[in-house]
Structure formats: structure tokens, C-alpha cells
């Protein structure tokens, strides 16, 4: 037999649900909107039942069927008339709807018993009504707990309490719309409410109104030349004042929050849709002065409570704070000032009551005769889905391009009940919608992603009879009417090693039309006088392959002479690409630092081939093949497999030479069939070359990465915290980049590891010993002043003998300065060829 | 991050109100960077009020049968956490 464990704070304005497990309290969040609490409001609108936030929206409007604060009517005969359904609802029924809604916050369990909190002022009839609401909501066992007691439990469980002495606590509960204070007696055996006081019409919103009236309105009246503005705002005389009221209310809430953490703030009010902006400073003192009268009202109630119970402040051990309004520092300070006792605000006041309810539920045994709390073993509610009590067929489009999609459900046989559809991200909820046998709903779709919906169907008593949580609608991912791209569309960019690689703009099978903006930086300096070129080369083919083995479909060359001023390395380049259904490619280049813009459209039928770039691509690979071939000293001793590769290399090289010679014959700027034939031949040859080297190089780069990582790990003990974090940052997503097939990406990671390794290594002065010999055994002619160099060697040798590594460091610095040609920093990025990376 | 996005939203709104177009590219770039970080910002200005849209907290004014969102005090912000989108901040709007 277990404990109840679940607790509900059924508040006048807001409610919440929590659970006690493993010594801790978990507060459940609303799966729609993700807040900790649910406004205790129910609305009916055109066959739809809205509970919580969306019902609250209607409360502020003139809508008829919105019911709030029904807690105040608990235990009375009062009935609420629902015009939409022509029904009458009791406060108990409305409360039961709130309780049911709170149960939907729990994803993987269905509690059968519950602790519900009630105000200290509730009499037996009101308490019984609350219990009835719990039973109506489907709980088999309902235990009631007074709110101040719940708050005390939350505080008491948070701290270690000395329980030997009897103590009195004051529970100061200042919520959004109500104020309550209770005197609670605490001793070893029990927590008991001695007496209480309250005002049902005093809450945080009254403080917001004071801010509007005294801090905002005088400033606005001045600018708009208005009189009696506050009165007009409160009566919402017309839509102008109604709109301004809501804007000011929002501002007042914001400044209340800000002034809880800052001493002064600057606030800005926008008037007449941006015609005027008033900017002024508000200090915490201004705010305190304005809200003081309402806070004093609470003080008067406390004094009255103490007086009636013949207690003085010295009889009270502490005041504990409950309710969101108590976040205001002035309230805390003022209470302490007036009563001179400890004001405890160590736990979150807005959830204190539900936390206490859960603590209590964690100690309260569940009745033996009730069925056990149902637990769903997996979050998808598979068990519950299998136990669906009705046969419902659902029809919807899995793929869409629209921002709404129709979902149709039909139940076989006669059915009368409600359905509810929610979206997993928390941004869509139909509320409870009544239907007979069949329903249809246009659900809202978020663009460019998979939208996950859940459907729940309820019977007339709002018991769940059907659940489906795996409704997925993809937006913009597939579209049968559009043309898919046959190949990747890529941009050629510089890497940091003097070579280039492809960066994908559009992916193969993406549906046309397509649009994308990417941001790059310049990888070299562009001197206006030097004829430097920035090359934007767009290719169609396969991502991660050798750029030159793909077909160029767009080529823009920007000459530095055409730029207004010199363009420096590291400046931003904005590139906008769009491809139409007929595959026209539009490219827009914008360089903000020099305010330069160039736009071009490339038609798929008119190819442009740049002869220089063509030539460079070939030369580069010829060079690479020659280097490969030079590694083989003796062909006779080579492995037969290697020979086969060498032969292939040789053939590719010969073909590239033939293309090179044929290219010479093609006239400058000639866009003839011939150059396209050559381009085709070039691509074929380079694809073959890429096929041979790509996987071999990839394996090599992975090996290099792993070696660098192992080397660095051996040094990690000596690394600083920052360096350790940097290491973790580099290796994060390791699996993804090692499996990416992109050798340059892996190479960049290896370089980052090596750089970090070197940094850690040279942190120690001893590390400079080996570096010293690197300088000492260089040819003496490499130094500008050999006499000076020899002197430095003498000093270096002496320092080495004495293990004076600090001195060695200085000697190395001196030798470096003397070198005619400085050694290249292996970690420095090479300037790019194309000019963008 | 939410505060930064809200400030950007306000700056963008003000420059639109004042017909200042020179920041357009900068805003485009900022939105691009935000998207790269997984954030998407929804400004529903001019759209029809939908009581099912729980990403917005609406202040309804008047009795229009089809209220339109006329003012956005705070935009709705979603974040993609790798497994899907999650509502990070409810938008606060006025519809009339």
C-alpha cells in the first residue's frame, strides 16, 4: 500500500499540481504553454470549452460564458448559466473541470487519490463541496488540507526545525487577487490554525493599478493633454483607452518584476502606436511610496488578527510568505520593520502551497480499497492507447505546405462527447470541443518542421475514452507538386589550409523553389590596386567531394578594383541564394563593410565557364598527383595494389594534361560547345581522382584526429580549467563529425586539438629546453647578426646548465628576432584563394 | 537570451514605426543568427485572433467577431532543443 503523493492547490485565481517522490516535490508544468500554474477559469465558446489561460483571455473581453473565482461560491446554491450550451453549472462542477485539467499535466500516471488545499476560512459545507469536486473529477479518495498549513509544511520541510518548543507562525498570503493571513500554532505533535483574517478583493493587480494611476498616468496626461485619464482607463471608455489600459498593465507588471531586483529602472511608454515615446526613470522608492497604502491594509489586518488573539509580535517566531505578490522587496522589508520579527521567504512563494500539499500527500496513506494509481510504463501512453474504448478513424495529410491542416475523426457507432487536440511544442490547444460521431478541425502548423499532435477524446462525463499521441504533420519537408533537386547545390569556400571545399546550400531532393541566406567572411585582404579577386563559385554535384569535380552553375568574380575601398580579411559577406522551379539561380552578394552589392541570375541553359579557374583547378590536381607519384621511390618494390593506384593516377594526370593543352586552343571568353566538352572531361577525370583519394584521406584524417586527441589527453592533467573546457568543446559532437565524411572538418578539429596541446605544453618553462636546441642547431647564416646569435647561444647554454628555463625563454625570443626568415606559425590560418570562408 | 530577443524585437518595432529602413539587413542577420541557435521568433501582428493559439496571451478589446492582433507587446519565442520545438516565451498581444 502506498501514499497519496499528489497534491493540488485549488486556488481562487490560479491552481497547480505537484507530486512527492524520493523526498522531493515535483511541480508539474502545463503541457500547453509550460507554466507551473493554471488560471482557475472556465469558458464556453461555440461548443468549445476552454480552461485556464485561454479562458482568462475571454474574461477580459465582453464574452458572456466565462467563469472565474467560483471558489468563492463553493458550498452555495449558486448556479452559473452557460448560454452556449443552455446548461447550468455549479461551482463544484466548474472546480471539477479545473481538477481534471490539472490531471492532464501529468503525462505518465493517473492518480486515484489526492490532497486538495482549501482556505482557512472554509466551513464544513464549503469543505465538503471541495471534496465533492475532487470525486467528480474522478479521484477515489480526496483529503483536504488548509492552505496556511500546507505553506507551513513547505517551509518546515525545507529547513531543519527545532520542534521541542511551541511556536506561532504567521502565514502571509498575498496573491494576484486575494489576501489572507493566518496564525498557526506549531508544536511537536501538530500544526494548527489558531485564527485567520483576509480580504477577498485585495491582490497584486491592485498594486499594478496604483502604479498606473500614480506613476504612469500623470506623465501621459501631460503628453496627450488629457484629464481624468485613470478613470477613463479603468472604465475602458472606448477601444483607445481599453488598449492603453492593457499596455500599461503589462508595463506595470514588468516594472514590478524589474524593481524586485534593481534599485532604479528606466521605463518607456509608447503612445498612439509609436507617435510618442515617454522615457522616464522609476526608483524602487517611488514604487514603494505608491504601493504603501495597500500594503498598509494588510498590516492592519495582521494587527487585528494578533489583537483578537491576544498576541503581540514578540509571540510570533516568524512570518512566512506565500503568493506571487510577496516577491516585492518592500513587503518583506516593511513587515520586518513593523513587527520586528523574522520574515522567511526562503522558498518560492508562488508554489509554496502546492509544495506543502505534496509533502502532506507523501505522508498520507492511500485507502486500501481504492485501485492503485495507474502508471504508464512509457511516455507515449502505449498502454492507454491500447485500451482505447472507442473505434475512431483519423484522416489527415501527413505533408503540407499550408499553415493549417484539416484533421477529420469519425467514431463508428453512436458517440456524443468531446475531443481535444494539442501540439507538442505547447503552442496549440483546441480546448474541449463537443462533437457527435464525427469532427473536423483545422490545426495550426508551424513552418518547416514536423508538427506533433495529440488527440484525446472524452465521453460526456469528460472521462478519457481515446488517446493518440503520434499524429505527425510535416510542413514544407515534402511536396509532391514541387520539383525535387537532383543534386546538392554547394558553394566553394576556402579552408584554413590553402585549399577549398564545398559547403552545401541546398540539399539533394529539397523541393524547388528554394531560398537561403548564408554569411561568410573574407579570407584574405583585397587591395584596390592589386587586382585581387573574390570568387563566388556555385556548383551542382555532391557535397563533400572535390569542388572541381562538380559542375559550376553560377560564377561571380568581384575584382578589388570595383570595390569602393580596400576590403580587409575577416569582413562579413552576405550571400543570398534562391532557386526557382525552373532552376534559375539568383545570387546576391553584399559586403556591409564597404557597402558593395552585386546581384546575378544564372540560367541553367546558359553555362559560364571561367577559363582561369578551370586552369587552376587542373593545375592543382596535377601538382597533387605529382606529389603522390614522387613518394614512390622504386616501382619494382611497390605493392601490386599500390601499382594499380599509381597507374590510375598516371592516367588521370595524362588526361588532365591533354585537357590543359586543348584548353589553350579555346579562345579567351569563348563560350562554345568545346569548352563545355572540356569541362565535362575535366569533371570526369577529377571525379575519378576524388574517388581514389577521398576515402583514403578521410581514414588518414580520422587517424590523425585520434592520435592528436590521445596525445592531448596525456597532457590534460596539467591543463587549466579553461583549457579543459576548451578540450570538451572541441570533442563535443565527435561522433557526428567523425562520421561526416568531411575530411576538412576533421582536419580542422585535429588542428584545434594540436593548438591546444601546444598551449598546454608551453605553459611549463621546461618545455622551452627542446625549443632552444631547435634554434641552436639552425644554420648560423639564417641569423641576421651572427655575433649576437653566438652570444645568445653562450647565454642559452649556461642557462640550460643551471636549469634556468626562464632565461632560456628570453634567449629563444632573442634568437627568433634575429632570424632572417621567421618560422611559420603552424596554427596560423593560410590566406584563402577564393577570398571567402 | 529571452531578454536580448525581446530588446531586438522592440528595436525592430521602433525602427519600423519610424520608417527607418537602414537596419533591415542587420535585423535579417540577427534573425538568421537566432535561427542558427535554434530560436524562432513569431510576430503575429495583423493576424486573426485564434483562441486555440496557446503561444499567445491575448488581451481582447471590443466585440468584434473576428478580432485582429493590432499590437504585439512581446513576441512568442520557440526554441528547437534538437528533438523538436518548445514554446519558450508566450507572446503578449492585443486583439480588437
Topology at a glance:
The complex is a heterodimer of chains A (837) and B (96).
Chain A: E1 6-10, E2 14-21, E3 24-27, E4 38-39, E5 41-45, E6 48-51, H1 53-60, E7 66-68, E8 80-82, E9 87-89, H2 91-103, E10 109-110, E11 113-118, H3 124-136, E12 141-146, H4 147-158, E13 167-174, E14 179-186, E15 191-199, H5 204-224, H6 229-235, H7 239-259, E16 264-271, E17 276-283, H8 284-308, E18 318-322, H9 329-339, E19 342-344, H10 352-361, E20 374-375, H11 382-386, E21 392-396, E22 399-400, E23 404-411, E24 416-423, E25 432-436, E26 438-444, E27 450-458, E28 464-475, E29 488-494, E30 500-506, E31 514-521, E32 533-541, E33 551-559, E34 572-579, E35 585-591, E36 596-602, H12 611-630, H13 640-665, H14 673-715, H15 721-731, H16 734-738, H17 743-761, H18 768-776, H19 786-801, H20 805-818
Parallel strand pairs in A: 1-11, 11-12, 13-18, 18-19, 22-28
Antiparallel strand pairs in A: 1-2, 2-3, 2-4, 5-6, 5-7, 6-25, 8-9, 10-20, 13-14, 14-15, 16-17, 21-23, 23-26, 24-25, 24-27, 27-28, 29-30, 29-32, 31-34, 32-33, 34-35, 35-36
Chain B: H1 2-17, H2 24-36, E1 39-42, E2 56-60, E3 69-74, E4 76-80, E5 85-89, E6 91-95
Parallel strand pairs in B: 2-6
Antiparallel strand pairs in B: 1-4, 3-6, 4-5
Summarize the structure in words.
The complex is a heterodimer of chains A (837) and B (96). Chain A has 837 residues and is of the alpha+beta class. Chain A folds into seven domains: 153 residues, ATPase, nucleotide binding domain (Nucleotidyltransferase, domain 5, 2-Layer Sandwich), CATH 3.30.420; 93 residues, ATPase, nucleotide binding domain (Nucleotidyltransferase, domain 5, 2-Layer Sandwich), CATH 3.30.420.40; 85 residues, Alpha-Beta Complex (Actin, Chain A, domain 4), CATH 3.90.640; 95 residues, Immunoglobulin-like, CATH 2.60.40.10; 121 residues, Substrate Binding Domain Of DNAk, Chain A, domain 1 (Sandwich), CATH 2.60.34.10; 153 residues, no CATH class; 53 residues. Chain A has 20 helices and 36 strands. In chain A, strands 7-5-6-25-24-27-28-22 form an eight-stranded mixed β-sheet, with helices on both faces. In chain A, strands 1, 2, 3, 4, 11 and 12 form a six-stranded mixed β-sheet that branches. The longest helix of chain A is centred in the last third of the chain and has 43 residues. Chain A starts with 5 loop residues before the first strand and ends in a 19-residue tail after the last helix. About 1% of the residues of chain A have low confidence. Chain B has one domain. Chain B contains two helices and six strands, in the order ααββββββ. In chain B, the strands form two sheets. Chain B has a three-stranded antiparallel β-sheet. Chain B has a three-stranded mixed β-sheet with strand order 2-6-3. In chain B, a hairpin with a 4-residue loop joins β4 and β5. The longest helix of chain B has 16 residues. The radius of gyration of chain B is 14 Å and the shape is flat. At the A-B interface, α1 and α7 of A face α1, α2, β2, β3 and β4 of B.
Amino acid at each position: 500500500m502506498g501514499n497519496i503523493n499528489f497534491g493540488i492547490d485549488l486556488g481562487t485565481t490560479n491552481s497547480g499540481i505537484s507530486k512527492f517522490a524520493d523526498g522531493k516535490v515535483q511541480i508539474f508544468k502545463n503541457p500547453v504553454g509550460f507554466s507551473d500554474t493554471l488560471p482557475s477559469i472556465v469558458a464556453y465558446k461555440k461548443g468549445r470549452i476552454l480552461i485556464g489561460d485561454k479562458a482568462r483571455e475571454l474574461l477580459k473581453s465582453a464574452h458572456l460564458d466565462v467563469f472565474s473565482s467560483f471558489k468563492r461560491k463553493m458550498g452555495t446554491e449558486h448556479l452559473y448559466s452557460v448560454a452556449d450550451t443552455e446548461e447550468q453549472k455549479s461551482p463544484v462542477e466548474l472546480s471539477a473541470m479545473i481538477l481534471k485539467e490539472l490531471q492532464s499535466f501529468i503525462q505518465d500516471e493517473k492518480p486515484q487519490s489526492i490532497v486538495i488545499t482549501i482556505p482557512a476560512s472554509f466551513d464544513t459545507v464549503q469543505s465538503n463541496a471541495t471534496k465533492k469536486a475532487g470525486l467528480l473529477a474522478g479521484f477515489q479518495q480526496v483529503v483536504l488540507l488548509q492552505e496556511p498549513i500546507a505553506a507551513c509544511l513547505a517551509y518546515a520541510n525545507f529547513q531543519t526545525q527545532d520542534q521541542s518548543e511551541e511556536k506561532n507562525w504567521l502565514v502571509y498570503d498575498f496573491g494576484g487577487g486575494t489576501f489572507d493571513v493566518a496564525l498557526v500554532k506549531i508544536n511537536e505533535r501538530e500544526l494548527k490554525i489558531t485564527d485567520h483574517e483576509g480580504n477577498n478583493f485585495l491582490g497584486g493587480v491592485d498594486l499594478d493599478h496604483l502604479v498606473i494611476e500614480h506613476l504612469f498616468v500623470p506623465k501621459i496626461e501631460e503628453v496627450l493633454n488629457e484629464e481624468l485619464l485613470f478613470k477613463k482607463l479603468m472604465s475602458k471608455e472606448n477601444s483607445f483607452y481599453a488598449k492603453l489600459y492593457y499596455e500599461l498593465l503589462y508595463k506595470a507588471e514588468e516594472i514590478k518584476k524589474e524593481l524586485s531586483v534593481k534599485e532604479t529602472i528606466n521605463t518607456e511608454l509608447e503612445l498612439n502606436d509609436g507617435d510618442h515615446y515617454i522615457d522616464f526613470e522609476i526608483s524602487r522608492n517611488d514604487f514603494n511610496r505608491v504601493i504603501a497604502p495597500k500594503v498598509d491594509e494588510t498590516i492592519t489586518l495582521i494587527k487585528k488578527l494578533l489583537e483578537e488573539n491576544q498576541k503581540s509580535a514578540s509571540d510570533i517566531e516568524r512570518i512566512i510568505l506565500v503568493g506571487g505578490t510577496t516577491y516585492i522587496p518592500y513587503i518583506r522589508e516593511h513587515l520586518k520593520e513593523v513587527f520586528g520579527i523574522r520574515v522567511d521567504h526562503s522558498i518560492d512563494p508562488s508554489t509554496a502551497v502546492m509544495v506543502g500539499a505534496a509533502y502532506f500527500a507523501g505522508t498520507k496513506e492511500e485507502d486500501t480499497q481504492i485501485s492503485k494509481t495507474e502508471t504508464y510504463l512509457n511516455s507515449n501512453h502505449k498502454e492507454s492507447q491500447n485500451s482505447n474504448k472507442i473505434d475512431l478513424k483519423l484522416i489527415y495529410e501527413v505533408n503540407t505546405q499550408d499553415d493549417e491542416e484539416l484533421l477529420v475523426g469519425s467514431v463508428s457507432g453512436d458517440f456524443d462527447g468531446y475531443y481535444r487536440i494539442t501540439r507538442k511544442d505547447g503552442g496549440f490547444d483546441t480546448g474541449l470541443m463537443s462533437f457527435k460521431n464525427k469532427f473536423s478541425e483545422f490545426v495550426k502548423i508551424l513552418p518547416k518542421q514536423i508538427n506533433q499532435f495529440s488527440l484525446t477524446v472524452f465521453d460526456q462525463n469528460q472521462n478519457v475514452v481515446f488517446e493518440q499521441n503520434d499524429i505527425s504533420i510535416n510542413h514544407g519537408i515534402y511536396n509532391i507538386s514541387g520539383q525535387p533537386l537532383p543534386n546538392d547545390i554547394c558553394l566553394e569556400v576556402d579552408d584554413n589550409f590553402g585549399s577549398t571545399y564545398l559547403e552545401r546550400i541546398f540539399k539533394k531532393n529539397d523541393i524547388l523553389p528554394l531560398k537561403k541566406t548564408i554569411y561568410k567572411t573574407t579570407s584574405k585582404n583585397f587591395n584596390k590596386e592589386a587586382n585581387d579577386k573574390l570568387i563566388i563559385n556555385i556548383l551542382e554535384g555532391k557535397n563533400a567531394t572535390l569542388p572541381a569535380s562538380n559542375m559550376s552553375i553560377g560564377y561571380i568574380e568581384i575584382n578589388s578594383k570595383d570595390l569602393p575601398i580596400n576590403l580587409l580579411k575577416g569582413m562579413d559577406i552576405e550571400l543570398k541564394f534562391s532557386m526557382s522551379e525552373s532552376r534559375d539561380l539568383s545570387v546576391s552578394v553584399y559586403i556591409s563593410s564597404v557597402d558593395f552589392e552585386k546581384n546575378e541570375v544564372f540560367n541553367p541553359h546558359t553555362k559560364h565557364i571561367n577559363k582561369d579557374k578551370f586552369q587552376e583547378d587542373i593545375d592543382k590536381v596535377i601538382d597533387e598527383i605529382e606529389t603522390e607519384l614522387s613518394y614512390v621511390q622504386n616501382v619494382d618494390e611497390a605493392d601490386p595494389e599500390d601499382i594499380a593506384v599509381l597507374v590510375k593516377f598516371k592516367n588521370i594526370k595524362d588526361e588532365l594534361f591533354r585537357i590543359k593543352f586543348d584548353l589553350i586552343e579555346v579562345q579567351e571568353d569563348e563560350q562554345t560547345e568545346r569548352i563545355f566538352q572540356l569541362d565535362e572531361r575535366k569533371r570526369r577525370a577529377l571525379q575519378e581522382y576524388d574517388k581514389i583519394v577521398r576515402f583514403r584521406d578521410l581514414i588518414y584524417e580520422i587517424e590523425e584526429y585520434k592520435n592528436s586527441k590521445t596525445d592531448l589527453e596525456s597532457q590534460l592533467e596539467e591543463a587549466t580549467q579553461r583549457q579543459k573546457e576548451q578540450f570538451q568543446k572541441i570533442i563535443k559532437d565527435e561522433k557526428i563529425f567523425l562520421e561526416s565524411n568531411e575530411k576538412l572538418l576533421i582536419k580542422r578539429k585535429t588542428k584545434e586539438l594540436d593548438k591546444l596541446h601546444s598551449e598546454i605544453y608551453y605553459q611549463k618553462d621546461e618545455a622551452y629546453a627542446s625549443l632552444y636546441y631547435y634554434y641552436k642547431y639552425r644554420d648560423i647564416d639564417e641569423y641576421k647578426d651572427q655575433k649576437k646569435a653566438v652570444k645568445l647561444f653562450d647565454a642559452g647554454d649556461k642557462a640550460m646548465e643551471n636549469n634556468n628555463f626562464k632565461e632560456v625563454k628570453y634567449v629563444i625570443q632573442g634568437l627568433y628576432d634575429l632570424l632572417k626568415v621567421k618560422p611559420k606559425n603552424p596554427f596560423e590560418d593560410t590566406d584563402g584563394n577564393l577570398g571567402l570562408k | 537570451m529571452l531578454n536580448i530577443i525581446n530588446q531586438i524585437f522592440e528595436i525592430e518595432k521602433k525602427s519600423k514605426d519610424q520608417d527607418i529602413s537602414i537596419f533591415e539587413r542587420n535585423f535579417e542577420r540577427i534573425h538568421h543568427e537566432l535561427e542558427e541557435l535554434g530560436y524562432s521568433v513569431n510576430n503575429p501582428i495583423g493576424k486573426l485572433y485564434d483562441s486555440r493559439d496557446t503561444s499567445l496571451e491575448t488581451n481582447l478589446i471590443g466585440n468584434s467577431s473576428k478580432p485582429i492582433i493590432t499590437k504585439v507587446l512581446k513576441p512568442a519565442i520557440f526554441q528547437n532543443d534538437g528533438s523538436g520545438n518548445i514554446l519558450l516565451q508566450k507572446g503578449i498581444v492585443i486583439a480588437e
